[in-house]
Design brief:
- The protein is of the alpha+beta class.
- The chain is 48% helix and 20% strand.
- The chain has 9 helices and 8 strands.
- The protein has helices at 2-17, 29-41, 44-62, 71-82, 87-99, 128-141, 171-185, 208-217, 239-253, and strands at residues 105-112, 118-125, 145-146, 155-163, 189-192, 199-204, 222-231, 258-263.
- Strands 3-1-2-8 form a 4-stranded antiparallel beta sheet, sandwiched between helices. Strands 5-6-4-7 form a 4-stranded antiparallel beta sheet.
- Strand 1 (105-112) and strand 2 form a beta hairpin.
- It is globular.
């Protein structure tokens, strides 16, 4: 009876999500472009720089450098651990935040990019005006501009968990088992990403830690777990606009103040 109930829940809950327009996994020309570029940018120094920025934001927003009092910081440090970031590096970043007198704060820019796409640009800076001017210059060169507002309502925050895929087992069997595990763990959706070929579980933003723990109990090897902005609706772009977006992303990600970028590109 329990097995029957699980099967019913799987098709009633997760099967319906398969047809939603929200992008939970990379499966498009844009995601392939981002994956290729990401492979080039995956050098340890670049990855650790991004994680260091997120630590600073977590401490600023959470109001504490103590992981026991700051859930956001705890989540970021867990990401650092999975990325094999040295403990000494993590401690150094936290210590620098405690002694930082620059009064840097997190901000979010809503950008209307090439082809009408929306990009959310999270930054951490002590000079918002200067940074806004610098980004404005990049936008003018790439058919972009600041949004008039309301772009945040086009996204929702979700917990995104990626696990290694057992390549020795049939895909159908892996996905069926993962679907059962997703239900029991409290996740909302699971699928296999392309081109990374990983299992991606989606859950509520506040449920991330609980779902990660449950998946680890099922012996999944977690490669990443974070809260991300997920678009409700995707924007199709032509090849020229995709190239402009790739260039804009490259320039923005090279800026030391930029923490993270999210978009609604199909």
């Amino acid at each position: 009876m329990f097995k029957s109930l699980i099967t019913t829940l799987r098709f009633a809950t997760l099967h319906d999500l398969t047809f939603t327009p929200r992008r939970f996994a990379g499966h498009s020309k844009w995601q392939n472009i981002r994956h290729i570029k990401g492979a080039k940018d995956a050098a340890r120094s670049a990855l650790f720089t991004r994680l260091s920025r997120q630590i600073k934001v977590a401490i600023q927003e959470g109001g504490s450098s103590d992981v026991k009092k700051n859930l956001q910081l705890e989540n970021i440090i867990e990401q650092c651990r999975r990325a094999n970031m040295p403990l000494a590096t993590i401690q150094s970043v936290i210590k620098s935040c405690e002694s930082d007198k620059s009064n840097s704060k997190p901000h979010l820019f809503e950008i209307k990019g090439p082809g009408g796409c929306i990009i959310l640009c999270e930054v951490f800076t002590s000079n918002l005006h200067a940074l806004r001017q610098n980004i404005s210059t990049l936008l003018r060169k790439n058919k972009g501009k600041y949004s008039d507002g309301g772009a945040m309502h086009m996204f929702e925050q979700k917990g995104i968990i990626e696990t290694e895929l057992d390549s020795e087992k049939p895909v159908e069997g892996v996905l069926e088992a993962a679907t059962d595990h997703a239900i029991e763990a409290g996740a909302e959706d699971v699928k296999i990403t392309d081109p990374e070929q990983k299992l991606q579980f989606v859950c509520g933003a506040t449920s991330l830690k609980k779902v990660v723990a449950a998946l680890e109990d099922f012996n999944y090897k977690i490669s990443s777990a974070s809260v991300e902005f997920i678009p409700y609706k995707l924007q199709e772009l032509n090849d020229d606009d995709l190239k402009l977006c790739a260039n804009l992303y490259e320039k923005l990600e090279a800026m030391p103040e930029v923490v993270r970028l999210s978009d609604n590109i199909a």
